Amino acid sequence: MYKFDHILVALDLSDMDSFLIRYSNFLLEKFKPKSITFLHVIKSYEIPKDVRAKFPEMDEPLADIVKEELSAKIKELLIDAGKTDVHVVVKEGVTTETIVQYSQLNDITLTLMGKKIGYKGHGGVVRKVLNITPSSVLLISETAQPKMDHLLVRMDFTKMSVMAMKMALKIQEQTEAKISCHHVHKLPLKYFTRSSVSDENKLEREIYNYTQKEFKKFVKKNKLAANDIPCTSALDFENEEAQILYSKALTISADLIVLGTKIKSSMADVILESTSEKLAGPEKNIPVFVVKDRSQTMGFLNALFD
Fold first, then answer.
1. Buried-most residue among 1, 33, 207, 292 (CB within 10 A)?
2. Which is more confident, 138 or 3?
3. Could you read off the pLDDT of 6-17 as tens digits, one per residue?
């Protein structure tokens, strides 16, 4: 779960590909994975024989043409892979299913994808892949700088926070990044009336004291080397944890938001819990690292598709 052995970079032939390839240089330099795969999925198609006869150049498989073009771009932008095996893979099929299946079969530990702020695309594939891929996912926008100097970890004192903190500490080993934690305490207005500024300030102090005690217990219980990491807190009256975390990341100039997540499921849908889903939105341009429990997700996928 906390390794970067096999990285998958999802490309879609848009301008975003160049940013993803350049960002891959940073991942290769810092984490030195065993392999990195650049994957593009093209939709299955069939051209009628009589049409193809009029265009003999179409005899060359489209996948081969796309692979050749991607390989040239990767060769141009990928600086030095070192001892990392570099693969360029082009497959035909349904994009989401193909990416997830590739991750399952090739023990992918991290998937890099783009959050398109300025480019065309609504992020539908990103959200679907994020929901069900067994690997952890790193989402970057075209404005993201290739650095991880300051990490903000979502802290709710659950197993998900243990996952996020362990990943942040792993990243810190490779990048010497500073780590901060932020606890968003949900307190719906229907259970608490905001009567005055002084009352709210008092409540904030109480939540802060609660957070400090819980964080110390959290670190001790999980035997984490995190005693010197600051953990701040905020109140959430309107179920806006994602926005609160994002605003905090902006305030402290964090390069990356790290959070653990788990799958929620029903007969009709398969989704991440809402905070992860909202932070993955293209309007939030700080990179997001969604840490997933591969064994739990694989077990769920096997049960879902067997």
1. 292
2. 138
3. 999 999 999 999
Enumerate the domain spans of the chain.
6-305
Confidence of residue 49 (pLDDT cuts 50, 70, 90): low
pTM for the whole structure: 0.88
Buried-exposed string 36-50: b where 16+ CB fall within 10 A, e elsewhere: bbbbbbbeeeeeeee
Residue 149: count other Cβ atoms within 10 Å of its Cβ: 13
- CB count in 10 Å sphere of residue 141: 20
Rounded Cα–Cα distance for residues 147 and 144 (Å):
8
Lowest mean pLDDT among 67-71, 218-222, 238-242: 238-242
Q: Indicate the angle between helix axes 16-31 and 62-77, nearest 10 degrees.
A: 60
CB 1 within 8 A of CB 163: yes
Q: Residue 86: CB partners within 8 Å, gap ≥ 6? A: 35, 36, 37, 38, 74, 78
Instruction: Of 174, 167, 143, 123, give the one whose Cα is nearest residue 23.
Output: 143
For residue 67, give the nearest of 47, 90, 49, 38 by alpha carbon.
Answer: 90
Residues 81 and 34: their CA atoms lie apart, in Å, by 10
Contact predicate 197/176, CB 8 Å: no
Question: What dihedral angle (degrees, nearest 10) is formed by the CA atoms of 184, 242, 258, 166?
Answer: 40
